[in-house]
Amino acid sequence: MRSKEIYALSLYSGHQAAFLRIDVFAKEKRGARCRAKAALLIDLNLRTHLVAKFGGGWLTQIAEAETLREARAVVRRYRTANRAGLAQCNEPEIETFG
Fold it and tell me: Which pTM was predicted?
């Protein structure tokens, strides 16, 4: 396989795994699932390493977001924590919106 094909496969499988985890955390809230998936696609798009590591407390936060803006804010905080080396534990303090 060429490197572009491997990257595409990695991108697909990373997003698929993240989407499955979102489905588990927001199983009874169709709107929350759609918002969470859209936020990941918009804000993490081609960053396969960040998509693959998205989990834990971040999933709880993104599943509880009531708007796309709030879901995107969760993803931006995740990216910031990852840059600072704090996202490794995947268990941030859970913030409530409202």
Answer: 0.77
